[in-house]
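Appendix B. One record, verbatim.
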Amino acid sequence: MVATSTLKTKSSECISDFVDRRYDQACIEKELDFWDHCLAEPQRNADVTEDRTCQQLAKMFENCLSRAKKTTLHCSSVLVPEKLTHRIAREVLRLASCEPCGLRGCVLYVHLELEKGCKRLERIVYDATVVPTFELTLVFKQDGTAWPSLRDFLFMGTCFAPTFRHVLKLSPGFRLVKKKLYSSSAGTVIEEC
């Protein structure tokens, strides 16, 4: 069903047209209630959709860190500050909002800044069916104030490789670098948060 400004209200005439075509009356009323609600509060529905997208994006970042934990970072756990992935997701959505395809046209490179430089964790394409229009590079930062645990000192060099870190703690700060791909005014935007 398509919502338009010419949609009839829930009159008996409108419902009887659909019932004559063998549609279930309860289903029709639910559908019309839904579209009445959508037309009455369009901003609220946009907020719900944006919040859902933000949650999905935050979950993608969490999954990325989880996968990188064993393969790239060589640690048993990654401590992520509360709401960090949600803050990043909101910033990514804000940077994508002015793009022609929005978030669907984004290629996201995820890195971690360590003492010895940056380590690439993953490349995320939000929608592989869309030609990318911009790139975002997300750089997580390691918390330099974190003290190693006693367990790290006891296990270091005994049963784990010297490059193994037992726990990696992320800083609440991060960096986002935006690069437009198909624009005559292609530039780079760097956001420190």
